[in-house]
Amino acid sequence: MSDGTAIAFLQDLIRIPSVGEQEETVAERIWEFIEASGKAHYFHKQSIPYADGREELVLDVGKNADAPLLGVSGHMDVVKAGNEKDWTYPPFAATIKDGLLYGRGASDMKSGLAALVVALTNVAGTNLPNRIRFMGTTSEEVDNGGAAKLAKLGFTKDLDALLVAEPTGFKTIWHGEKGILDFTAQVKGKAAHSSQPELGKNAINDLLTLAALTAAQAKVLTDKTDPLLGHATYNPTLIGGGVQVNIIPESGYFRGNIRSTPTANNDQFSQALQTAVQESKKQGVDGSIHVDSALPALASAPDNPLIKQLQAILRANGYDTADVIGGPAISDASVMIPNGFPFAVFGPGNDTNHQVDEHIKVADYLAAIHLYTDLFTHFGAGLMEQQN
After folding, report:
1. Are 173 and 310 in contact (CB under 8 A)?
2. The domain spanning residue 243 has which CATH number?
3. Which domain covers residue 374, as residue numbers?
4. Residues 207 and 279 in one domain
5. Which of 72, 137, 194, 337 is the most exposed place for a label (fewest CB within 10 A)?
């Protein structure tokens, strides 16, 4: 397949504004690309409805039922572009300038998604020592709901390893990732005229008391160091309360985001949040904290078979051995596989994710296609270096 065809395919995907929607359009474009390659008959395709206009795509290649099954995953949604006037080039135009392709999702993670598809098309119909299952997911940037649905339907239960093509770059491979816990704190007060505050109860003052106690309880856990993932983090990220400047507020809330580790896990943070609530009640605060969603930290052996194969492929292609680390964020792996399962997060990209002027080096995207093609060609048949 020509570089120009592969680049045009990535541009097409970026031009679809799949901001929590239109993943079905992305899935359709992926299948159109495969059909145009003339290799669609080598693929077993399954379309999984998620919501209106939102569809997941599962593609299987390889027919030897006894061969190892490698799962590869990429999400089809992107975050909002923000103020589009701040962008040098329109965020959904997929403009190429000086070897860089600009656009929302260029790094996170339509370049990884497209590279998986092109590589899979490259090897379809060849004598593979494995089977490969591609999973294009929805809603990763919100709640990982699409990946969770695929896991619930059984698409990950028979995998031997899982690759998630998030943008790590080629110098690092994740073999672990932090967990996440989102929560909402709410406080009740009593409204009154601001000239007579004694007749009311200021919910914002009480909210600040609860917030301070929550931060103090969380600090006990964030001070702990995990040998793989480092420190957990705690951050209040949303706050609100009151209805008018001259009314004592009768309610208030704040939301927070915690990134947990095995050393400071979600259960411990949940208990810390409730301890803060109980301490606040002693100060007259009528408050509560509710956990909205939680995913546990995840880790695999740093020398699992998939990572060994990736390292061999990197070296065979002239790259240095990658640093195998615990990642600071979460991926769809967190809801697809159990702790300890062989997995790796590895894909083209950089640190412009979720930023204005997000971009990818075109050369990195093309290199990822080559690396993934080698992975699909050799996984399950011994390390590439041993075969060369």
Report:
1. yes
2. 3.30.70.360
3. 3-177+298-387
4. yes
5. 194
- 154 Rama class: left (phi>0) / alpha (psi -120 to 50) / beta: left
Whether residues 242 and 216 fall in one domain = yes
From the list 357, 311, 309, 353, the residue with the least C-alpha distance to 328 is 353
Paired strand residues for 69: 131
Q: Which of 242, 269, 295 is the last residue of a domain?
A: 295
H or E stretch at 263: none
| pLDDT tens track for 199-236 | 999 999 999 999 999 999 999 999 999 999 999 999 99
pLDDT in tens, 274-287: 999 999 999 999 99
> Both 228 and 264 in a single domain?
yes
Long-range contacts at 309-315 (CB < 8 A, ≥ 24 apart): 309/375, 309/378, 309/379, 309/383, 309/384, 310/173, 310/344, 310/346, 310/371, 310/375, 311/173, 312/378, 312/383, 312/384, 312/385, 312/386, 313/371, 313/374, 313/375, 313/378, 313/384, 314/170, 314/371, 315/385
Bridge partners of residue 186, in order along the sequence: 253, 288
CB 163 within 8 Å of CB 343: yes
pTM of the model: 0.89
Residue spans of alpha helices (H) in 226-324: 266-281, 305-316
- The phi, psi pair for 87, rounded to 5°, reads -80, 145
Pairwise CA distance, residues 37 & 134, whole Å: 17
pLDDT at position 194 over 70? yes
**Cβ pair 272, 220 in contact under 8 A:** yes
Strands 131-137 and 69-75: parallel
Whether 103 and 204 map to the same domain: the answer is no
> How many domains, the chain?
2
Do 22 and 147 belong to one domain?
Answer: yes
CATH code for the domain of 304: 3.40.630.10
Specify whether the CB–CB gap between 20 and 46 falls below 8 A. Answer: no
